[in-house]
Specification:
The complex is a heterodimer.
Chain A: E1 2-7, E2 10-15, H1 22-29, E3 48-51, E4 54-57, E5 70-72, H2 85-92, H3 102-115, H4 121-127, H5 139-150
Parallel strand pairs in A: 1-5
Antiparallel strand pairs in A: 1-2, 3-4, 3-5
Helix pairs in contact in A: 2-5, 3-5
Chain B: E1 3-5, H1 33-37, E2 53-59, E3 65-71, H2 73-77, E4 81-86, H3 87-92, E5 97-99, E6 105-107, E7 113-114, E8 120-126, H4 129-136, E9 140-145, E10 174-181, H5 183-192, E11 195-206, E12 215-221, E13 226-231, H6 236-247, E14 254-257, H7 273-285, E15 289-292, H8 295-301, E16 304-316, E17 322-332, E18 361-369, E19 376-377, H9 386-404, H10 408-415, E20 424-425, E21 431-432, H11 437-448, H12 450-462, E22 466-475, E23 487-488, E24 491-492, E25 495-501, E26 507-511, H13 520-532, E27 539-542, H14 560-587, E28 594-597, E29 600-603, E30 606-612, H15 613-621, E31 634-640, E32 649-658, E33 665-675, H16 682-701, E34 733-738, H17 754-770, H18 785-792
Classes of the chains: A alpha+beta, B alpha+beta.
The complex binds FE2/S2 (inorganic) cluster (FES) (2 copies).
Keywords (chain B): Molybdenum, Oxidoreductase
Region (Disordered) (chain B): 1-24
Cofactor (chain B): Mo-molybdopterin cytosine dinucleotide
Chain lengths: 164, 800
C-alpha cells in the first residue's frame, strides 16, 4: 500500500507492506538508521521518534498508521551544522556511551523541553522512564538534559566547533 | 603512592573548551560522540550490502527433547525463501558442532537432541526479515520430550537425566572440580578459631542484555574465497582465528569487522551459532546474509552470567580479626560448557574471594555441572567471576559483623591489607600489585556522612521505619593476563598496538581491542597524546577490523586499558625514541644531548633549539639524512604481554529505605569511591562507574533469569527480565583515590567492570541491614518487593 508522511520536514511516499512497523519503515525503507530497535515487547525505547512532536515508540505502530503525520527522527534534530542543544548537552555531559539508546533519549528530552523548558530532575527521570539505557546509569543523561535546558539556544554550536 | 583527591564539585568539572583542552590526560569530550548524537553510528543492523538476504533461527520450544523429525518442505516452498538449513545439513559440512571457549563442543544446530529452551534447530535464509520469520512457522519439527535437569542441586544426583549424551562415555552431569588455596591449612585455622560464621548464598543467573542484540552479516566471495564477516564482537581477532579453525577457511581469507557496538558487557565475546549460520547461509546462497537476533533470543540463548550457589565460611577472633575464608561452589554452566575464560581457570578468577583482607588461610572448591539451560557463565561485566567472589566475601564480612555486633566499616578497616604489605601475595596465588585501602574507605564515609547516616538510622528504627546502610569494599583483578599463565583456547592474552605519525604530524593508532561504548577512540588517542604531545583530535583510532589492526584478544575483563593501553603507551614511547634519533640528526647533535618536553625534543640548556614531533615526522618521511640504523617514517608496533594483572579497588556505600507495607526497596543514595590508578579521562571513568552501579542495583533488586520446573525460561523478554530505568536509580555520588599500578607503563588499572563487581553486595548489605529488626542476616538476590516481603515474614527463600 502507498503511505505518505512527513519525515524530518520532507514529505515522503513509499509503497509498503501493510504490516511493516514504523521502526522498520524508517530504518529500511528510508535508510534512517539512527532510530534503533532493541526489544520485542515495547519496553526499551531505543526506537523512540517524535510523531507530531510527541515521543512514540516506533515499534508499537505501523508505518501505515503514521500516514499523514509528521515524524521527527534523530537525523532531523540538528539544523544543518547547528546541533540541537539536547545533542550538544549529551556531548557536554557524557550522556551517551555506546550510543544505542541515545537517539530515543534525545528525542524524548526534546519533547520534554518543548513543553517544560526548565524541568526538575524527577521530571526528567520520569520523562525517560519508558526507555532503558544499559551503559550510563542515567545520571549523565539527566545532566545532559539539564545542560540543554540551561542553554536553550546553544548559540554557535556548529559542527566545525565540535571537537573532532 | 596513593593520592586522595577531593571529590570534584559538579561545577568544577566542566568540559574543556578548545582553549584549555588537555593534550593528554584530562576531561575532554568524546571523539566518537559527534556521529552518535547525529544518529550516524554504524551498528551491525545498519549495514546493508547489495543483494543481502536475511536469516532467522528456529529454536527449541522445550528444555530437553529428542528430535524425531524435521520437515522443511513447506518453508522451502515459500517464494521468498532461499535456503533452509538443518543440523543434518551441517553434519554433512562437519559443522553441526563447534568448539566452545572452554574445551567443550556446542551444537550449532541440534542434530540428536535439544538441550535447552531456545536452542538453535534450523536456519532460514529469505529475502527480507519478515519473510524469514514467516518461514520459521512453516517448519515442522517433531520432538519426543525428555525429563530435564533444571535444579542444579539435583544435577549430580545418581538418577539425574544425563544432559550430554553426545559426549562419549558420559554418565553424569559433572564438568569439573577446581580448587585454589590450601585446604588443610585452612581447615586447621577454622578448627582453632573462636568464631566461625557460615552462609549459603545464591548469585542468580542474570544476563548482560546490551541494548543492541547480537548479530552478524557474512559475505562470502566464492571466486577468491574471501569471507568478510561483520559481527557484534568484542574480540574480532580471536573470532577470526576461531573461524579459521572451525570452518576451515584459511585465516588470511577471513576479515572480521566489528562496527559500532551497542553495548557488550561480555555478551559479545563468544561465537554464537547464529554467526556460524550466517556464514553457512552466505556460502550456500552465494549472497551476503544478515542475521540479527530478537530480544527473546538474546535473553534465552546467548551468554548468561553468574548462576553460582556458594557456601561461604569465615573464621575470626572474637575481637574481629578475620583469619580465614573458605567456600564451596556449585556452578551451573548450562547445556554446553561455553564460558569464555582463561584455560587454566575454569572458575575464572573466583579465587580472589579473599577480597581486600589480610588472611592466614583460604580455600575454595568449585564444581561445574551441566543442566538443561542456556550455556554461558562468564558475561555481564564480571571480570571473569570476580563479581561472584566479591559478593561472597563482602556478604560474609557483613554476616560476621552482625555475629560479632561490630560496625561493618570498623570490621573492614581492622582487616584491610596494609599499604606496606603490597605487593601482597594472597593465599590463593594472586599478587596484588598496589593498594592503600583505608583512605578510600574513609573518603567514602566522608562523602556519605557515615556517622550521621547511622544516627538517622537509629532514629528511624526507633520509629519502626526500615532504613539500611550497606558497605562493600572490593578488590578487582583485571587486565588478563600474563601469557605464560593465561590463554583462551590456546591464544595468549596479549594485545598489539601500532602507532604511525604521518608526515604532517597527525597520527593513527591501531588497536586489537574493540569498544562497545567505553570511548576507546578518545581514551587511546589521549594516551598517544600524553606520550607524544599530538592533540587527541589529530589522532585517528582504528579498531574493530582484523585487516587493519594488529592481533590481540579483545575487550572484556576490563582489559583494554591494562593491556592495550600499555601497548599503546609503549608503542608511543618507541616512536618518541625514534623521533629523538631523527631530531638529533636534524639538529646535528647527539641524541643524549636532547631533552623531551611534551611534543618536542630540544637541546639541553638551549630550549630554543628543538624540533616538534610534526617537524620530526616530516623529516623522517623527507630527505633528512637518517642516522645509521634508523629507517624512514615515524612508526612503531608493540605486542604487550602484561607481567601481572592489575588490582583496582573501591569503597561503596548504599543507603536504602524499604516500604514496610510492600517490601519495595528504594535506593536513596549510592556513594562510590573508586581507585583505578592513573586516570586518563575522568569523565569517561565516571561514566563507566555510573553504568556499573546501575547494573549492581539491577542485579540486587530485579534482574533474574529464572526457570520453571520444566525448564521454561521465565526471563525471556524485557517484560520479565527487569532492568533499572531512571526511576530506580539515584544520582550517583562518586569520588576517587589514585594508587597507580607499579607495573603498568602509565599506572592505569582499568575501570570498566569495577562498579558492576563492587555494587551488588553494597545494595544487598543495605537491604539486609534494613531488615535486621526482623532478625535477618541474609537474603538472596534479587530483592524484589515480593521476596523482601516474604523475608520480612521470616521466609527468605533462595531464588528459583
Ligand atoms: S524496540 Fe524496544 S520499545 Fe521499541
Ligand atoms: S548509551 Fe548504551 S544503552 Fe545508553
Amino acid at each position: 500500500m502507498q503511505v505518505t508522511m512527513t519525515v524530518n520536514g520532507t514529505e515522503v511516499t513509499r509503497d509498503v507492506e501493510p504490516r511493516i512497523l514504523l521502526v522498520h519503515y524508517l530504518r529500511e525503507s528510508l535508510g534512517l538508521t539512527g532510530t534503533h530497535w532493541g526489544c520485542d515487547t515495547s519496553n526499551c525505547g531505543t526506537c523512540v521518534v517524535l510523531v507530531d512532536g510527541e515521543p512514540v515508540k516506533s515499534c508499537t505502530q505501523l508505518a501505515a498508521m503514521t500516514a499523514g503525520h509528521e515524524v521527527t527522527t534523530v537525523e532531523g534534530m540538528a539544523d544543518g551544522a547547528t546541533l540541537d542543544p539536547v545533542q550538544q548537552g549529551f556531548m557536554e555531559e557524557h550522556g551517551l556511551q555506546c550510543g544505542f539508546c541515545t537517539p530515543g533519549m534525545m528525542l524524548t528530552a526534546r519533547a520534554l523541553l518543548d513543553r517544560n523548558p526548565d524541568p526538575a530532575e524527577d521530571e526528567i527521570r520520569e520523562a525517560i522512564s519508558g526507555q532503558i539505557c544499559r551503559c550510563t546509569g542515567y545520571a549523565t543523561i539527566v545532566r545532559s538534559v539539564q545542560w540543554a535546558a540551561a542553554h536553550p539556544a546553544a548559540e554557535g554550536t556548529t559542527a566545525s566547533e565540535v571537537p573532532a | 603512592m596513593t593520592t586522595v583527591e577531593e571529590r570534584p564539585a559538579r561545577e568544577a568539572n566542566p568540559s574543556a573548551t578548545a582553549a584549555d583542552r588537555p593534550i593528554g590526560f584530562g576531561r575532554i569530550q568524546r571523539k566518537e560522540d559527534p556521529r552518535f548524537v547525529r544518529g550516524k553510528g554504524n551498528y551491525l543492523d545498519d549495514i546493508v550490502l547489495p543483494g543481502m538476504l536475511h536469516g532467522a533461527i528456529l529454536r527449541s520450544p522445550m528444555a530437553h527433547g529428542r528430535i524425531v523429525s524435521i520437515d522443511t518442505t513447506e518453508a522451502l516452498a515459500h517464494p521468498k525463501v532461499h535456503a533452509v538449513i538443518t543440523g543434518t545439513d551441517l553434519e554433512g559440512l562437519n559443522l553441526a558442532w563447534a568448539p566452545t571457549l572452554s574445551a567443550d563442543v556446542q551444537a550449532v544446530l541440534a542434530t540428536d537432541k535439544v538441550r535447552f529452551q531456545g536452542q538453535e534447530v534450523a536456519f532460514v535464509v529469505a529475502e527480507d526479515r519478515y519473510s524469514a520469520r514467516d518461514a520459521l512457522e512453516l517448519i515442522d519439527v517433531e520432538y519426543e520430550q525428555l525429563d530435564p535437569v533444571i535444579d542444579v542441586r539435583r544435577a549430580l544426583d545418581p538418577g539425574a537425566p544425563v544432559v550430554r549424551t553426545d559426549l562419549e562415555g558420559r554418565t553424569d552431569n559433572h564438568i569439573f572440580d577446581w580448587e585454589a588455596g590450601d585446604a588443610a591449612e585452612t581447615d586447621a585455622v577454622f578448627a582453632a578459631a573462636d568464631v566461625v560464621v557460615k552462609q549459603e548464598m545464591v548469585y542468580p543467573r542474570v544476563h548482560p542484555a546490551p541494548m543492541e542484540t547480537c548479530g552478524a552479516i557474512a559475505d562470502y566471495e566464492p571466486i577468491d574465497g574471501k569471507l568478510t564477516l561483520y559481527e557484534t564482537t568484542q574480540a574480532p581477532h580471536a573470532h577470526r582465528t576461531l573461524f579459521a579453525m572451525v570452518a576451515g577457511i584459511p585465516e588470511h581469507k577471513i576479515r572480521v569487522i566489528s562496527p559500532d557496538i551497542g553495548g557488550g558487557f561480555g555478551n559479545k565475546v563468544g561465537i554464537y551459532p547464529g554467526y556460524i549460520l550466517a556464514v553457512v547461509g552466505s556460502i550456500v546462497t552465494g549472497k551476503p546474509v544478515k542475521w540479527v537476533e530478537d530480544r527473546s533470543e538474546n535473553l534465552m540463548s546467548t551468554s548468561f552470567a553468574r548462576d553460582y550457589i556458594m557456601t561461604g565460611e569465615v573464621a575470626a577472633t572474637r575481637d574481629g580479626k578475620i583469619l580465614a575464608v573458605r567456600t564451596n561452589v556449585l556452578a551451573d554452566h548450562g547445556a554446553f560448557n561455553a564460558t569464555a575464560q582463561p584455560t587454566k581457570y575454569p572458575a575464572g578468577f573466583f579465587h580472589i574471594f579473599t577480597g581486600s583482607y589480610d588472611l592466614q588461610a583460604a580455600h575454595c572448591k568449585v564444581t561445574g555441572v551441566y543442566t538443561n539451560k542456556a550455556p554461558g557463565g562468564v558475561a555481564y561485566a564480571c571480570s571473569f567471576r570476580v563479581t561472584e567472589a566479591v559478593y561472597l566475601v563482602e556478604r560474609m564480612v557483613d554476616v560476621l559483623a552482625s555475629e560479632l555486633g561490630m560496625d561493618p566499616v570498623e570490621l573492614r578497616l581492622k582487616n584491610f591489607i596494609k599499604p606496606e604489605q603490597f605487593p601482597y601475595a594472597n593465599k590463593t596465588g594472586w599478587e596484588y600489585d598496589s593498594g592503600d585501602y583505608e583512605p578510600t574507605m574513609r573518603l567514602a564515609m566522608q562523602i556519605a556522612g557515615y556517622e550521621d547516616l547511622r544516627r538517622e538510622q537509629a532514629e528511624k528504627r526507633a520509629r519502626g521505619e526500615l532504613m539500611g546502610i550497606g558497605i562493600s569494599f572490593f578488590t578487582e583483578t583485571v587486565g588478563a593476563g600474563p601469557r605464560k599463565h593465561m590463554d583462551i583456547v590456546g591464544l595468549g592474552m596479549a594485545d598489539g598496538a601500532e602507532v604511525r605519525v604521518h608526515p604532517t604530524g597527525k597520527a593513527v593508532v591501531r588497536l586489537s581491542v574493540q569498544s562497545q561504548g567505553q570511548g576507546h577512540e578518545t581514551t587511546f588517542a589521549q594516551i598517544v597524546a600524553e606520550e607524544l604531545g599530538i592533540p587527541p583530535e589529530d589522532i585517528d583510532v582504528v579498531h574493530g577490523d582484523t585487516d587493519n589492526t594488529p592481533f590481540g584478544l579483545g575487550t572484556y575483563g576490563s582489559r583494554s586499558t591494562p593491556v592495550s593501553g600499555a601497548a599503546v603507551a609503549l608503542t608511543s614511547r618507541k616512536v618518541r625514541d625514534k623521533a629523538r634519533l631523527i631530531a638529533a640528526a636534524m639538529l646535528e647533535t647527539r641524541p643524549e644531548d636532547l631533552e623531551w618536553e611534551k611534543g618536542r625534543w630540544f637541546v639541553k640548556g638551549d630550549p630554543g633549539a628543538g624540533k616538534t614531533i610534526a617537524e620530526i615526522a616530516l623529516g623522517a618521511h623527507g630527505t633528512v639524512a637518517l642516522p645509521e640504523g634508523v629507517d624512514g617514517n615515524l612508526d612503531a608496533e608493540v605486542t604487550y604481554d602484561p607481567p601481572n594483572l592489575t588490582f583496582p579497588f573501591g569503597a561503596y556505600i548504599c543507603v536504602v529505605d524499604i516500604d514496610k507495607g510492600t517490601g519495595k526497596v528504594h535506593v536513596r543514595r549510592f556513594v562510590a569511591v573508586d581507585d583505578c590508578g592513573t586516570r586518563i579521562n575522568p569523565m569517561i571513568i565516571e561514566g563507566q562507574i555510573h553504568g556499573g552501579l546501575a547494573d549492581g542495583v539491577g542485579m540486587a533488586l530485579m534482574e533474574f533469569i529464572g526457570f520453571d520446573e520444566d525448564g521454561n525460561c521465565l526471563g525471556g523478554s524485557f517484560m520479565d527480565y527487569l532492568i533499572p530505568t531512571a526511576m530506580e536509580v539515584p544520582d550517583w555520588e562518586t569520588g576517587h583515590t589514585v594508587t597507580p599500578s607499579p607495573h603498568h607503563p602509565i599506572g592505569a588499572k582499568g575501570i570498566g567492570e569495577s562498579a558492576t563487581v563492587g555494587s551488588p553486595p553494597a545494595v544487598v548489605n543495605a537491604v539486609v541491614d534494613a531488615l535486621a529488626p526482623f532478625g535477618l542476616t541474609h537474603m538472596d538476590m534479587p530483592c524484589t518487593p515480593a521476596r523482601v516481603w516474604e523475608a520480612m515474614q521470616g521466609r527468605p527463600t533462595p531464588p528459583i
